[in-house]
Amino acid sequence: MKQVSVLLSFTLYLATTALLDAQNYKFRQYGIEEGICHPFVYTVNQDARGYIWLGTGEGLCRDNGFEFDGDFEADSLPDAFVKKSYRDSRDNLWFGHNDGSITLYDGNGFLVMDTGERINSTINDIAEDPDGRIVFATQNQGLIIIGEDHGVDIIQEPFNRKLISSISFTPSGQLLVGAFDGMHLYGYDFTSDTITYRSRISAIPSARITDIVQGGQEGLFWIGSQDEGLYALRFDESDAASSAVEKIGDDQMLKYTSILSITIDRDGYLWLSTRGEGVYKLAVSPDDMTITEFINFSEHNGLGFKYITEVFQDLEGNFWISTYGNGLAGLFDEALTFHDYQDQSGTTLSAVLADEEGFWMAGSGKLVRYTTGLQSTIREYGPANGLPRDKITALFEDENGYLWIGTGNSGLYRMNVQQGVISRYFISQNSLENIVNAIDGGGGIIWMATNNGVFSINFTTGKMERFGIGPRIPHNRINDVFVDSRGNAWIATRSNGIVSVNSQEEYSISAEHMVVLEFISITEDEYGNLWAATANDGIFQFMADTLEYYSTYNGLKSAACYSIVDDRQGNIWVGHRLGLSKVDLERRIVVTYGTESGINGDCQPNASAVTTEGVVLFGTSDGLVQFDTKKERRNLTPPFANIISVNIADKEYDFTKPIVLPYGIYKVRIEWIGLNYAAPEKVTYQYKLDGYDDWSDLTSEVYEQYPRIEDGTYTFMLMAYNSENVGTEVPVQFRLRVKLPIWKTWWFITITIMMLISSFVVIIKYRERKAKQFQEILQKKLDERTREVVMQKEEIEIKNKDITDSINYAQRIQASILPPISKLQETFSGSFVFYQPRDIVSGDFYWYDQMNDHKFVIVCADSTGHGVPGAFMSMIGTTLIKDITARKEVDSPAALLAMLDQEIMSALNQNIEAERSNDGMDIIVSEIDMKTKLLRVSSAMRPMIIYRSGEQTYVRGSRSSVGGQYEKDDKVFETFEYQLMKGDKMYMFSDGYPDQFGGPLGKKFKMVRVKNMLRDIYEKPMEEQYNYIKNNFEIWKEDNDQVDDVLFMGIEI
């Protein structure tokens, strides 16, 4: 079964050889003209900072993606060429030379190992033992072992000058040695540096073993040999003699291949470097060791060289191929390949079409069919098969298997694919209609875009209909016709959008975006959105309610677009002159491919297609460009950011350690590079000098110059980003410190502060002494003034006591004049008087008395002012009221008020114009007939509130006060009568209660709250009402000062 699989693989290889001869991969060639140090390159490696190192015929050479550098003379490196390189587990690079010299590079500098004069044999291989020591295989002088302390041990005895070419350690630490006479096993005791010969692995021929590489499974080794091909060794640790050996390939494939080195890439593929056969890339089944995939890179498909020394895969996944005499080659993208079918259809491919079996491509007078699979073939059709000698511009295959062929000037052709017969289908008398720009179809209808409108053809009935300039088609030249997933036929022409010719749908670009555009090509993405490419204005994505636009400003390679296609993998591809653009729909980024990727032709209008396997095809002026999305390798490795040099005041500084400078003003120039070998020209940077500025915008500049760096501590930080905007996770940096000037140093500041403090102390002491003297003088004067103030204070206190005593005595006099409350309660048991002067004496007063057997008069008055002036007025008012009520002519409360008004003005001489006063009082007089319960009331400026049968009555008084307003001749005091019943209540009060400030907002109590308060309590016993009114006043007032005298009277009939 194994032999059959191998034979089948090789048969596939032979069947596709002719095709692969036309399929080219883009290898970047690095020779003498590109600056490589020497054309003979023996080994390739990469250090921890990302630099690629080459071992050449003239020593070491380093690549940074832009240039090669081999000038390391200052490090006194050996002159001999470098045969082998190795990167150990500590990221050191080791180089073995052909004269036996060994060089170590630790990332900062070189160190040449001292092996004495005993070693002069070529270093053929390098490995690391289980203890972390580095083992070097010399060609005929045994092994060199270098420990971590760089101590050198040379072991020759067990090898008996055996010609060693390669070495490798087994999982248990035994040593496999490839020699010129086959494969050998040695016991390796790294604890005692003892090596013992065990046996020869006889299943492997006695040929020169060139390389030993541990495979993807434990115990699996791949063995490369000179002239004997490739072997697989399944090493048995317990019984080496029973280890299984498999020969890879057969009599026709790899049997006599001379393999120089083996590389296993990240995906498990084997890369074989050969002498005379280029590079083989293999996938080998681990089960039966048959070859499942096979590619030979050589002169026939882009590599250009046959003699290969080594293949190296760098940290980005790029492949570096070193050669004998032809420098270096780089393979950065296997997805992008190129087909030159010049012998079949000319250089320019103007139309391509993909189907389930392969694809069609066409140029000038030639049509080529390429079928894939085990029986892959290429078949060519030309004028002998019925094609015109004209440029083929469009291809479309209908559901019946017919191939429709559009031409540049000869109209429309149709091909019966099964019979291979081509015939003309349509030719017009109008030459513009014979210029076919695109063909598409579906549902039994073929749509053909021409320079004179678009045609629909029912290929069942043969009915043809033309659509030209009209309300919805602005131009006759139709560049493309595209049938979407819903069967709508869309046209691309010169307009401000795209329209469907078989439905009412259309998309237009508003005038604020752009003027009339030349639409070239249309496609549909996996979400059902249409995309359109324009001749000079980028591409548009049309969605139901929005529009997306892409051009050079957001990453498109060019605004001139000739074709557009969806690859069914979430990407939109656009063809340009000398390049392609890929729009990643998920990440909304654009990736471009140009001449640096190997594209040397211009994409042709609408010459694009996608195979069922997801391979994107573009017809160009330089053949077919093919992008296999399955082989695409994303550039997800961030660039290696490296600071190259730091120049301060025209002097180079070592930036690997902090730079400390004396005080001054410096000009600083910093240079850097971001190592990304796949697209070095697309690397961008962000940087900042912390302590000086903020992060910069993204830039492609590789240096920055700071003209004025003064004292301070700075940290320079650098970030690098690749073409897909993947950046370094941690910025590279170095520290720079410019020392402070002497006046900013701590000791200078300390001395200065101490001197200032001393000066302050002296000044303060002096001022204290002067202040003390001045204080003594002031104290004397103060004592004198104090005595005077004390005397005046005592005098004032005496006078204040006299005045207070007088006022207190006046209060007693005033209290004696006011009738006792008990007198009121004798007549009205349900009554109360809440009386609270603001000061000691009050301007508010009350009076009541029995006039005869059945009448009782009650007075509630508020005199002008309060305190002593108010008290005077209250005493005058009380005296006059007593006198007036005794007069017979005073027969009503209104008469009493009128008489009181005259008496007050007379008593206070308010008719004397020169010194008239405005003193008076607001007063309410009520007369109650004790028999009939008739209430007669007259009021001057004060209201009364009466509750009769539960209903509140508000009695307003006259708008004139008693006394104080002599000029008003129209004073009128009215008497109001109210028939009361037992249990009715009447309330009289001065303005001190409603005018009191307080509450949570510090506002007046106001009349509204008085009414509401009485409405809440009028049904309560009068004693409770008194307590409520008194307590409510104190609660409302809180910490506020009392603003006026307060008098509140309540009487229950």
Structure summary:
The protein folds into five domains: 2-337, YVTN repeat-like/Quinoprotein amine dehydrogenase (Methylamine Dehydrogenase, Chain H), CATH 2.130.10; 338-631, Methylamine Dehydrogenase, Chain H (7 Propeller), CATH 2.130.10.10; 640-743, Immunoglobulins (Immunoglobulin-like), CATH 2.60.40.10; 745-817; 822-1052, PPM-type phosphatase domain (Phosphatase 2c, domain 1, 4-Layer Sandwich). It is built from eight helices and 78 strands. The strands form 19 sheets. Strands 1-30-58-57-56 form a five-stranded antiparallel beta sheet. Strands 45-48-49-50-51 form a five-stranded antiparallel beta sheet, with no helix packed on it. Strands 67-78-75-72-73 form a five-stranded antiparallel beta sheet, with helices on both faces.
Describe this structure in words.
By secondary structure, the chain is of the alpha+beta class. The protein has five domains: 2-337, 7 Propeller (Methylamine Dehydrogenase, Chain H); 338-631, Methylamine Dehydrogenase, Chain H (7 Propeller), CATH 2.130.10; 640-743, Immunoglobulin-like; 745-817; 822-1052, 4-Layer Sandwich (Phosphatase 2c, domain 1), CATH 3.60.40. The strands form 19 sheets. The protein has a five-stranded antiparallel beta sheet. Strands 45-48-49-50-51 form a five-stranded antiparallel beta sheet, with no helix packed on it. The chain has a five-stranded antiparallel beta sheet with strand order 67-78-75-72-73, sandwiched between helices. Strand 31 and strand 32 form a beta hairpin. The chain is elongated and about 160 Å long.
